[in-house]
């Protein structure tokens, strides 16, 4: 999983408790912004229809539907703009 605050890759074995924090930035791990169900465009900002409303999405909560996000680390992600730029550079052998 990837920390929503600093982007560092987090590895947890088993259950993620409400008190777990990111070792790099100390932000709460068990929060909506780190959840795979979080969707800012969905009703209640969550894809889980039974989830209760959470006011502060970046703070720890007691949601039973929390599922660690499955994002890739930023170091392995290449944006389409970066791909286009590298293709352009290779074209002119910069």
Description:
The chain has 94 residues and is mostly loops. It has one domain (1-94). It is built from one helix and no strands. The chain has one helix spanning 80-91. The N and C termini lie far apart (36 Å). The mean pLDDT is 86.
What would a concise description of this structure say?
The protein contains one helix and no strands.
The general outline is elongated
Number of strands: 0
Helix content: 10-25%
| DSSP summary: helix tally | 1
Strand fraction band? under 5%
Can you tell me the number of structural domains? 1
Largest sheet: none
Oligomer: single chain
Q: Whole-number radius of gyration?
A: 17 Å
Class by helix and strand content?
Answer: little secondary structure
Overall pLDDT confidence: 86
Query: Separation of termini?
Result: 36 Å
Keywords:
94 residues, little secondary structure, 1 helix, 0% strand
Can you lay out the helices and strands and say which pair or pack?
Blueprint: H1 80-91
């Amino acid at each position: 999983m990837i920390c929503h605050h600093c982007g560092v890759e987090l590895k947890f074995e088993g259950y993620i408790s409400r008190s777990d924090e990111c070792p790099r930035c100390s932000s709460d791990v068990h929060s909506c912004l780190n959840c795979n169900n979080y969707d800012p465009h969905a009703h209640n900002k969550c894809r889980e229809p039974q989830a209760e409303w959470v006011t502060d999405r970046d703070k720890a909560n007691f949601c039973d539907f929390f599922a660690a996000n499955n994002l890739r680390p930023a170091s392995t992600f290449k944006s389409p703009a970066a791909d286009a730029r590298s293709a352009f550079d290779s074209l002119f052998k910069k």
